[in-house]
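Hey,

The postdoc asked me to send both predictions to you directly instead of through the lab channel. I've kept everything plain text so nothing gets mangled by the mail client. Protein one:
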Amino acid sequence: MSRLREFQLAFGRRIRSAARAPVPAGVPRQRMAVYEELLFNNLRSFLDRCFPVGRDCLGEVRWTRLCRAFYRDWPCATSWFREIPREFVTYLEAGSGQRLPRWFVELVRYEWAELAVDVMDTAPPAGLADGDLMAGCPVVNPALLSLAFQWPVHRIGPAFRPRRPAPVHLLVFRDAADEVCFVETSSATARLLALLADGRVSGGDALARLAAELGRAPDAAFMDFGRHSLADLRRLGVLLGTTA
């Protein structure tokens, strides 16, 4: 068993490191090359599909080098193929050691969010009502990520590479047709959604608390603006209704 274990480790090192590790004893070099190419290309295909903008921004050579480094250096904690993009984001956030644009890590986290929301295992909450969002307790869409970025990631692409940070807050959610949607919002609206997250706070109470946090009175103008904001969120599918 120890010899088998040694062979498996040597085989794995060669698969991950290619030319940086020797071919295991007894394995023809050409056959080894087939394994190396197939496995790397398989992993690379998941990254290409999830991060098309990141790939285009880096260019083919730098993107391939980054994928190779991830494949070689990162000990993935899951065997699920659909989790590979999340592991890639974690790898970059942990510090990949690669020279990348300052906004690149946030860009890939933004691109990953679409997949994350698309595969979220959620079901519509039971007992929904089409009630008054101010008097009742609004229900937040469970298939939603509320994300804050220091860079305008939704605008970044080969034709736009920002030089300075420009903070943005984005909502990524799955609508009634199971389509993933992206909406730019304010930090105040993001905070309002956080206050409503447990489904046990009325819209009016959440707005009053938000006003206090912002250092202003919950006067008629503020509450009326909040009422319209809640209605817009329901129209978009960010809020699903109220608790019955």
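Protein two:
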Amino acid sequence: MLIVCTSSTDVDYATTGDVLGLLFNSTTTAGPGSTQEVDRIGRLVTRASAWADAHVGRPLALQVYSETLAAYGGRQLMVSRRPLVKVLRLFDSSATCDATEYCSTSYRVEDREAGLISRDGGFAWTRVDELSGGDFSLGLAAARLPRREARPWLVEYVAGYSVVGSTTTSFGVSSGAEEYTTGPTLPPDVTQAVTLRAAEMYSNPLGVSQRSVGDLSVTYRGRNTMIGVMSEAEVLLAPYRSAG
């Protein structure tokens, strides 16, 4: 189970100025012409930012999450949102009556981009189903059903990138902490991808890539996943996509 505890108010990963600069970057090119058009571009930036979230498979903006996780007997847990900025609290159970909270010195963030939390004592395998040998494996050995692990580990954490003007103090990170930042951490590739997408939506809202006059033929642009053809914006976001 994944719950968003605190959401970022910064949801635009580019600015209207970024898109205006791309669309009207020449002295010979006319500008948008009206404040209504500028407002429209601003709305397209918001839509393009939402598209970026959907394309990579997770929100990119900084947020606080509460997530229950299964463990498999190793020394690491993997949260589903990344980059992992800070672990706020870690419990061995989602039941408040008997949960044990682990001290922050007993675990560490191993890999922020992968969302990995490490603990020297490990995380016990949370299997719940075990069958006798005769039930499943013809009496040769005991067997356990796959993919039936419980999810007792409860992690509250901060993940994502801070956007322009963001600070991390409102997300459980103190100003003296290593993770604290007052500036943006959003990768430039994400900003560029959103800028390209918003500009494309403005200049070609129907997604037409080819027109013909004779016999009226119209071709719409789209990504052909069978042959791996992607737009430039999708190429820029490819390193940030979640698996699955």
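Summary for protein two, as requested: The two ends are 17 Å apart (CA to CA).

Thanks,
C.
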